[in-house]
Amino acid sequence: MHPTTWPLLSSHSPCRGRFRSNPWVGSGLWRPQGGMEAIGRSTRSLLSQRDTRSRESHQRSPCRVDLESTTAEPSSAVCDYRSRNVHLRLHVSRPRRQLLMSLPDIQSGSDFRGIDLDHVGISNLRYPVTFSDGELTQSGVADIEMTVGLPAAHRGTHMSRMVEITHEHLQDLDPRTIGTILKVASTRLDVPTVALQVAMPISAEVQSPVSGATSWQAHDLVVRATLRHSQISVETAIASEVTSVCPCSKAISDYGAHNQRSRITLTTIGEGDWPYPISATESIELIRASGSCPVLPLVKRPDERAVTMRAHDKPMFVEDMARDLSTVIRKRHVSHRIEIRNFESIHSHDAVARLTWRNPASASARHNSS
After folding, report:
1. How much is the mean pLDDT over the chain?
2. What are the backbone dihedrals phi and psi of residue 169, each rounded to the nearest 5 degrees, phi first?
């Protein structure tokens, strides 16, 4: 036996006479549109009804709905057509296991061109880093580069893993333990050669010679570390500025001499169990002592007079500064590189000097000589 459904707007609807006062609902549909009459069955309301004579809330009490139930309710007609709001809250529990799509790993594919790549990876990644070497602790935003030596048989490397390694291991940077990070990267990237570079500014507090005023002088720090076939080398570069007075200008002039700012970059090289032979703070002090006079952010008039006379008492060529600084570092048996650039004040060019010195007892020096 099939239930009979009355047309929505039929003039023969048995319930039409009940809605003479307000037969329309909201959008223009007849109220009895949801009505259904089952032949031979008693009718009842599907939901408990709000008594319009009392001041009951339009909100229904929340209750759970069992969506897994398979019990079918008999068809029934809605014969109570009083105005009401129906609020039904459904909660469907999600499965705890999430299905992951199986995507191809293109980078892990093979390459048949037979060409090794020296460096492949990420560069110019700006990331917050705290530098701490036991003497100096400073935080800033570093510029990071991480690359691997890619074997000829590998199609590519996984650069997203490099960012993960940065986030997990490089937010606290200690040059003395950077070798551990290289070993982690080598394992996760499945390569024997990993190179890492972290560049960031650091600052040191300085004092003016006469007034005693204090200020902060910024310097550029670059830490480069390489793992190659289980051998670790670490280079720590500090770049800072000094004043230099030209000895020739002073010797040939009746009075005065031309002077300029000079930028000195000292790179110390550590290996094996001695990855950080000279601290960043000590490198800054050695650089500032190697010029005619250190530069200062805050200089009052008495200070200006003092530093000018001090610089003219110690005139230096760019060659002199490179040799003097290298002499100090060699006495400590530390492999190093030095680059000095004078921003000449009376010439239309810069003056530069560079040198590299390897400790004969170091592993890299023995390897290069062989």
Report:
1. 81
2. -125, -15
Output phi, psi for 41, to 5 deg.
-125, 150
What is d(CA 217, CA 202) in angstroms, rounded to the nearest whole number?
9
Half-sphere exposure (Cβ direction) of 329: Cα atoms closer than 13 Å: 32
Inter-CA distances, 149 with 7, 111, 120, 155, 253, Å: 77, 15, 6, 12, 55
Confirm if 342 and 244 have CB atoms less than 8 A apart. yes
Say if residue 196's pLDDT is above 90.
yes
Sign of the dihedral defined by the CA atoms of residues 358, 359, 361, 364, in that order: negative
Do 340 and 263 contact (CB within 8 A), yes or no?
yes
CA distance 229 to 191: 9
**Strands 231-245, 214-228: pairing kind:** antiparallel
Please tell me the distance from the alpha carbon of residue 244 to that of residue 262, in angstroms, as a whole number: 6
Which range among 11-15, 70-74, 358-362 has the greatest average pLDDT? 358-362
Determine the angle formed by the axes of helices 159-169 and 178-189, rounding to 10 degrees.
Answer: 150
- Residue type (1 letter), 160: S
Q: What is the pLDDT of residues 328-349, one digit of tens each?
A: 999 999 999 999 999 989 999 9
Calpha distance 353→317 (Å, rounded): 10
**Residue 5 per-residue DSSP state:** P
Round to whole Å and give the CA distance between 125 and 198.
Answer: 10
pLDDT digits (tens, 9 = 90+) for 242-264: 999 999 999 999 998 999 999 99
Percent of the chain with pLDDT over 70: 71
Name the maximum alpha-carbon separation found in the chain. Answer: 127
Tell me the three-class secondary structure of 41-94, residue by residue: CCCCCCCCCCCCCCCCCCCCCCCCCCCCCCCCCCCCCCCCCCCCCCCCCCCCCC
pTM, full prediction: 0.69
Contact indicator for 347, 244 with CB cutoff of 8 Å: no
Classify residue 297 by its DSSP letter: S
CB-CB contact of 238 with 265 (8 Å): yes
Residue 351 corresponds to which tokens in the numbers above? Answer: 């003056």
Q: How far does CA 132 lie from the centroid of its chain?
A: 18
User: What is the residue whose two structure tokens read 């009490």?
Assistant: 61
**272-288 as b/e, with b when 16 or more CB fall inside 10 Å?**
eeebbbbbbeebbebbb
Return the half-sphere exposure (C-beta side, CA atoms, 13 A cut-off) of residue 16.
10
